[in-house]
Amino acid sequence: MSGEVLTVAEMGEADRLAVAAGVPSIKLMENAGAAIADAVDALYPFAHVVVLCGPGNNGGDGYCAAVKLRERGYQVRAVSVAPADGLKGDAAEMAKRWRGPFLPFGADAFKGATLIIDALFGAGLSRPLEGVAADAVRAANASGLPVLAVDVPSGLHGDLGRPLDGPDGLCMRASHTVTFFRRKTGHLFFPGRALCGEVRVADIGIPESVLQTIGVKTFENGRDLWRGKFPALSPTAHKYDRGHAVIVSGPMHATGAARLAARGALRVGAGLVSVASPLDAVGVNAAHLTAIMIKPFEGAKGLSALLSDKRFNAVALGPGCGVGAETQDLTAAALASGAAVVLDADALTSFAEDPAALFRQLHAKAVLTPHDGEFERIFPGLLKRSGSRLLAAREAASAAGCVVLLKGADTVVAAPDGRAAINPNAPPTLATAGAGDVLTGMITGLLAQGMDAFYAANAAAWIHGDAANRFGLGLIAEDLPELLPVVLRALAGHDRRTNERRSSD
Questions:
Q1: pLDDT band for position 340 (50/70/90)?
Q2: Are residues 159 and 227 in the same domain?
Q3: Same domain, 284 and 208
Q4: What is the pLDDT of residues 61-99, one digit of tens each?
Q5: What is the phi/psi pair of residue 417, to 5°?
Q6: Which of 116, 373, 378, 457 has the fewest other C-beta atoms within 10 Å?
Q7: Which residues constitute the domain of residue 130?
Q8: 78: helix, coil or strand?
Q9: Which residues share a beta bridge with 343?
Q10: What is the pLDDT of residues 218-232, one digit of tens each?
Q11: Residue 205 contacts by C-beta under 8 Å, 6 or more apart in sequence?
């Protein structure tokens, strides 16, 4: 598995393990400074640079970068918010190597500059900005100059991705961020993702082996996470080899959500897709569907009878079904069938009065896909209590005993064994009616093809976001399934090029 993302504590342990393995800590800082200078070369090659240096190792990285940039011919000023003679360890050594003046922060600190390097505080900062450091951040934000942040923008919580003094608190606003070894969770959660700008990850000499020692279980969702598990077409396959997904429709007045989900399941590759339709909705569903079949049923007993055919190996239920005892019974029928099951919307809200009744029925092939409101209904108080979407999703998956996909701009997918992934590519255009129904169908279509629940949920979330990004403004839910062939072709081409590169190495 790849795409690991570290917490602040795990990054500290990675540094410690690297030093224990024989990498001098001063070498790690030298490499960090060189990586910052490399980023300036790539992004701002003619900049007049002011490096804001803080009182700890982040400041040491800044002093090292200042030395490297001056050696490369840049005009550089180092501006400190704390006396350099108060630095310790490697940071003190880097400050000694800086032969330029130690300028205290003042009103004219950025005069003549075209780039600010923010090396005040890194991901380990645990208290809100104050004093001269706070003044420096306010001035940098007001200057209009681009900011290259070191590790994270100063003032950002490295784990939670929000300013340390609250969601709208004081934090440096960076155009780019250079971080080391691996991204931190704070780079991926909003508003941190926006405050960081474009994030570049630099290799500073920490051995990859430390990841296994640490036991990292958090990942950035992307192709590398699940492409080895993604369904591949066999030249001799037939449609029944690709699974048969069933989407349970709501009554006559609420059928659109099921059809959106069914289209998503079919476009993502399920060999067959059927809409299980209440009798009063058969006509309206039949009038809209062609390649997708209609399977009439009546009540929970009817759905159980339908799903007794084991060729129906994945079921989605909830969108448009209505809230109440009838949907509870339909959910029980789906979960008892032995098929993989995706539960969304009304299938979750119907258990708001007794979530434990739902949890008792769930199994490892189930996926729950709540947005924040639905999550609160079945895991009341958990988001607020945990203080973190990542921790909340993990605890929810453990309590439910199945995969939980917590939807949002920074969707989290968590498995009961503690694995979790943060999705980085969902654009704001996905905030449109029915987009979540398409996602539900896509997960169901991948489950029908035999994909593991954790990987299916992550693959669907990423592909969903990529499709939306390709469409752009004006997106509506009906557009998403029609973009899936483009995304899938691009994925196939990417894998082919990757394999060709590997075979030539």
A1: very high
A2: no
A3: no
A4: 999 999 999 999 999 999 999 888 889 999 999 999 999
A5: -85, 5
A6: 373
A7: 5-216
A8: strand
A9: 317, 368
A10: 999 999 999 999 999
A11: 18, 23, 27, 28, 31
